Every structure is written in C-alpha cells, then in structure tokens.
Amino acid sequence: MDAALMLVAFNAQVWMYPQPIDFRKQMDGLITLVADHLGLSPTSGQVFLFRNRRQDRIKILWWDRNGFWFCYRRLEKGNFIFPPINDAAVELTRDQLSWLLSGIDCMKQLHFPESAPTNFF
Known about the structure:
Distance between the termini: 30 Å
Largest sheet: 5 strands, mixed
Structural class: alpha+beta
Helix content: 10-25%
Number of domains: 1
Number of helices: 3
Shape: globular
C-alpha cells in the first residue's frame, strides 16, 4: 500500500484539483486554492491532490485533527496518468488514488460493484 494512503482515514473523500499548478506553491497556497477555487473546507478531513503540468509530480494535502499533512512525490522516470484537465474538481475513490500513485490510468480501471448485504452468516 502507498505510504500516503496509510495516513488517510478509510472514509475520507479524495479530490483532485483540476488544473496543473505552479509547484512553487507551498502548503498555505494550496490551502487557499482549496478554499477559494474549489469552495471546500481544507480542514474537512478530505484529501486534496495537486499536479504539475509535466505530470511527473503530485502534492497531497490532508487535515488530521489538529494539523495538515503535506506529501510530495516526484517521479524520476515516467509520468502519472491524471484525469483530463477540466474546470471541475474530480472526486476519486481510494482505489483510484492508489492506482494513480502506482502509475495506472485511474479513470479506466473497473471497480467491484458495490453491495449492501443484509444477511450475515
């Protein structure tokens, strides 16, 4: 399992900021992007992903009870396969986040169907 995923609560929503960002932005700049451009609360416990234009870097911002986690990953070879650039934030599942961080096209993978079992043995 990816180190970043181990830190995140299992039920946390994951949001990808839609546009490539200037990677000189640090934590406070990304917090402002979440609040001002996505209209979401940076301290909600949700996970926020940011990408660069070359697709070889990713930043992850996450609030944990009393402070922010700020993770950064730079690939030495290859590129991440991000969802297409658009104006709306993209919500990812935990599986999609894991696939994205592993270099897999997270938008083309299939999930197991959700189930709501009522009988337990």
